[in-house]
Amino acid sequence: MERIFNFSAGPSMLPVEVLETAAREMLNWHGTGMGIIEMSHRSKPFDSMHNKTIADLKELLHIPDNFKILMMHGGGTLQFACVALNLLGDKTKANYLITGAWSEKAAQEGAKYCTVNTVATGKTSNFTTVPDPATWNVDPEGAYFHYCANETIHGLEFDLTEEMLAKIGDLPIVADMSSNFLSKTIDFTKHAVVYAGAQKNAGPAGVAFVIVREDLLGKSLKIIPSLMDWKTTADNNSLYNTPPCFPIYMCGLYFDYMRRNGGLEAFIEIARQKSTLLYNTFAESNGYYTNPVNENFRSKMNVPFLIKGGNEAIEKKFLNEAEKVGLSTLAGHRSVGGLRASIYNGMPMEGVVKLVEFMKAFQTNNP
């Protein structure tokens, strides 16, 4: 069977070249006579792979020397608790901007350890826009300001504007970038912590990346489990215990692939082209396909859409016919319905072109 185009929100498609390299090396990594998946994480061969993965990510994102790169278990979701447990220190409050399901979940987890101040919420708009910064209520006594840079379910993405930054003030800024990691530049002069699960834009499920400014390490609460402590992880180069070895290796292959194919800048441009093609298709459909998100905050990674205003019968037919031609996992999240195309770095332009061609033909055949 031919490879399909998988539009899943995660785990997602990986570049074929990365998968082929992993297949070749499965039984014999660089002449060691065994694969990474079998290798001791205390061995010199593993150590070389591990350190190259970190170095390549640092190069891709231009991460400053005063930040530590951590590779941790538990995905992005475990970091919801890690953020509070590592950053609260002697403070009892933290600020959360709620722009969708994932920032809401982060706030709910944070509330187990501190008093959460909701800076603003987009819930009244069904998370289709970012609340006006003029309405934000930031508590300067909070330990940090947390936001989600790309809401995977609702397809909302944004950068912090100067007006937003003025509202936040001097608070450490924490960003969940799980679903737009490695698809945009990150201003590390403004961010104190960036975290992301790998399974969307960086590799397979099983590892989360935490990029944390060094001066914030060592402030964790006493109740924190050792494996969740960023300082413990940093002091041990993410090798405090057996790490998620194979996911780290796969991420390393992905980073190397990106470096050899134009670096971050090239993938930013490809993401722009892919998302523009999809959004233009909506605009040219005369309302047949619609996206509910404010045009200023539309995601380049996760593109939700409705057919004929949310006609469930037509959408079901669309999904069934799309699967038959190799366009897979286009259903929207169960909490919002509709359809969604996730077009991460591993999704080639050919996949988006095929989807758009299918959409146009489907509209013609199902007016």
Automatic annotation (TrEMBL):
One Pfam entry for this protein is Aminotran_5
EC nos? 2.6.1.52
Q: In which pathway does it act?
A: Amino-acid biosynthesis; L-serine biosynthesis; L-serine from 3-phospho-D-glycerate: step 2/3
Please give the cofactor(s) recorded in the UniProt entry for this protein.
pyridoxal 5'-phosphate
Q: Which domain of life is it from?
A: Eukaryota
Q: Which GO terms describe its cellular component?
A: cytoplasm
The chemistry this enzyme catalyses reads: 4-(phosphooxy)-L-threonine + 2-oxoglutarate = (R)-3-hydroxy-2-oxo-4-phosphooxybutanoate + L-glutamate; O-phospho-L-serine + 2-oxoglutarate = 3-phosphooxypyruvate + L-glutamate
Please state the span of the N-terminal signal peptide per the UniProt entry.
Answer: none
Q: State the UniProt keywords alphabetically.
A: Amino-acid biosynthesis, Aminotransferase, Pyridoxal phosphate, Serine biosynthesis, Transferase
Q: Which family does it belong to?
A: Belongs to the class-V pyridoxal-phosphate-dependent aminotransferase family. SerC subfamily.
Full protein name: phosphoserine transaminase
Q: Which organism is it from?
A: Stentor coeruleus
